[in-house]
Design brief:
With 158 residues, the chain is α/β, with parallel strands linked by helices. The chain has a six-stranded mixed sheet with strand order 3-2-1-4-5-6, with helices on both faces. It is 35% helix and 17% strand. It contains five helices and six strands. It is globular, with a radius of gyration of 14 Å. It has a single domain, classed as Rossmann fold (3-Layer(aba) Sandwich), CATH 3.40.50.
């Protein structure tokens, strides 16, 4: 049994109100938000983190190293990345899951709906964020693991 968190960065680990800059001058990530993610993952019993964010494509070099360093400070690491164009994130996750059949439970953290509604299994696992602490269910009928992970996020946020 394997659990994965499909992670967007912008809008999850930061917001437009984030004051920290990345090495390349983009909006950085908030340590508090990474701590919330780390706490929720720990409480769930561990997870592979799969990066779905544009940070995997555009933000190479210092910014990606910066993100990895910030995650390591909280004992987290990226175990994989999806291969997709930004507006086909759902298809990218579907393709990743086909290649990684060991993943049987997962949640998706992101601030955008992209093409997720086209894939009912993804839609019920999507938590829409404006910062991880503001996570909300995309679906009216979320998957069990999504409900549990959402509760853990709320526990870590308070």
């Amino acid at each position: 049994m394997s659990f994965a968190v499909f992670l967007d960065v912008d809008g999850v680990l930061n917001t437009i109100k984030t004051c920290v800059a990345s090495p390349d001058g983009h909006i950085g990530v908030d340590d508090r938000r990474i701590a919330i993610l780390a706490g929720a993952i720990k409480k769930y019993g561990g997870a592979d983190i799969v990066l779905t964010s544009d940070w995997k494509n555009k933000r190479i070099g210092d910014d990606l190293q910066y993100l990895n360093g910030k995650l390591r400070e909280h004992k987290l690491e990226i175990s994989g990345t999806t291969k997709d164009h930004w507006n086909n994130r759902g298809q990218g996750i579907i393709d990743y899951l086909k290649e990684h059949t060991e993943i049987d439970e997962y949640v998706i953290l992101g601030d955008n709906r992209f093409d997720f509604e086209k894939y009912p299994k993804l839609w019920e696992r999507l938590l829409i964020t404006n910062g991880i602490e503001q996570a909300a269910f995309a679906s009216n009928t979320p998957a069990i693991e999504t409900m549990i992970f959402h509760d853990y996020i709320k526990d870590m946020s308070s």
